[in-house]
């Protein structure tokens, strides 16, 4: 799991200090926050971290801010296969949950670092900013509602040398989004050798079968460079942890045999194809200069479940209101037009509309009434449950050169191109307004996020007579962003002939983006930064940074950071930091139009339209131009490095964020609102029940404590290593407007575990390796219907991960293991949630809803 690292020479350190590009740093994989290890010749070495500083790379214990350095072995030795879940396993303040029925969140799951939203963490690859995903998480479980962060699931673990997690505010160093911290994915740079790995697994219940194969190879690029290539392919079957909904069961009991059991699926989506390609290249140019290039291409097709459409009550499809006697009526379409030709009878639904004599009249197409009158029960007698998904395509390319001039001024110039595209798809559904001519599958449209960045960075060590030279850094960044919306196929948004008779418009569940709404918006920003780090004495280090950014769409901002570290004794050091930060609203948050299906405040399934905050109807309901989120962050910590080999860090953090961005809670549209929309030319406004928009409408204070400890010892004829990672996080919503409901506040404060910890033990002896990991997840609150209905308490959970591996030869290892080996499940949902929506377990549970997962993998190293 942990390999040797020879101390970097003084000359190499100088070169490294000249660049902010982390890809060139020849850093050996290490365990999180670990300080020393034994090399073959029993020499003590440092474990080096470079994220968070532009000076010479320092050991993680010497950093003024908390940094975790996670080796590639840590990612390999676990049951998870996607990067988001892997990060949750090894970083205690990193949280992610399943998204079984959650619109675009099913395609790109939002993740949270230190209790903040998914787009509060800046993601780097080889030290360069990673572009955002095109997916906006309209239903993000409260905390990440409306977030638009990068998609880190496109990064294959086989491509990584290590991952560095800076758990401190760093907007003054790296720019917008770094409120919670920074995650830097460092790619392998081997010029020879490689690995091939194949793994397979499934859940204890026999579903969710997964197959994955990956390979990495390093090759020389002349005698002065390297080419490192990685490929990964994965498929995964869906899971179901569902029970029959009460309304579906009542339909079956009344004689409707067309209703599926279960009518609605809660579980992991199906991953049909997941392809990931990464390349990392470097070439020495001589005279202390080098060129580098890296990039990726990834494509993933995902399909998941959606909400059940009841054949009696689904508005705009089956529900025709009530008559004067209060009886529920079926929505019947008059194909030759209301008041034209043959009239349609009133159909009372009763317990089973299929048994109604008046329904039999319209269902018999051999009569004039039957040929002219239409209800969707004729083609969907048991209702329907749409299948929603799409294809996510991601690509990037970074090219640059760096080196050092004769005057010790280091430079790094790079161009960064990135794009993420989501092409939505929905099937087993209808456009109700098209009546019997409707297709059953649709392409509702695409969103594309594109970014182009130019970075120019300069560094210089200045000898001022201090213990170490003062490392000065400064730079310039230009970034251009584009968010493009592409219309869906015409049938996905068409207003058919039955649209004027109360039938819904567009593909039901996810109406297509209309040609009227497609287009692209763009912006650019420029940034200047300065950075300094110095040792005033041998034991006291001080660092400072300032950054000015100017955005074309909302203005400029100036942020700063101070950090210090004091080595109090040989074993104990005190460190701390204070910073200001910001997060600019994304183009998607400012301009996106979307309609999603959710449960309303009355417990019924409704269509909720998300509109730009400057749209007239949004303004009518309180929307206004977005402004950046502002933050202040402080941390203080203790580093302990004892002679007996125990290494431990304890860090407290406090993050205050004002004007936080999120989607407003659903706001009901009145008849007057709908009339106003129609007058403005929003022809599908009659399909909207609620509207939402992005807003700067609440302030929060998040505080927490991270504890990381590592210890190793010789025992049982081999080496045993112990690792503890503990996190406590608490969020308080300090102020909020009427656009944010009390239920949303409760989700913001309590939907993540307040306490998470894991204790890992590994033992290696001869050809055998054993791993055991105990994980604890504190209780949470959940409202998985996102409906402002009663929220339920979910108790704490403990899970156990196990793995055993055997090396059959020097270069071939087979491992078998189990994630959640004791097959633990969260507390079952309350009777209300189970009966209404059919989810057996709370879907945002941090341990998931699928139970135990076992796997086998083989690794060949060459």
UniProtKB/TrEMBL annotation:
It is a multi-pass membrane protein. The keyword Transport applies. It is found in: Cell outer membrane. The keyword Kinase does not apply. InterPro entries: Beta-barrel_TonB, Beta-barrel_TonB_sf, Plug_dom, Plug_dom_sf, TonB-dep_rcpt-like. Residues 1-32 form the signal peptide. Belongs to the TonB-dependent receptor family. It comes from Alteromonas aquimaris. This is TonB-dependent receptor.
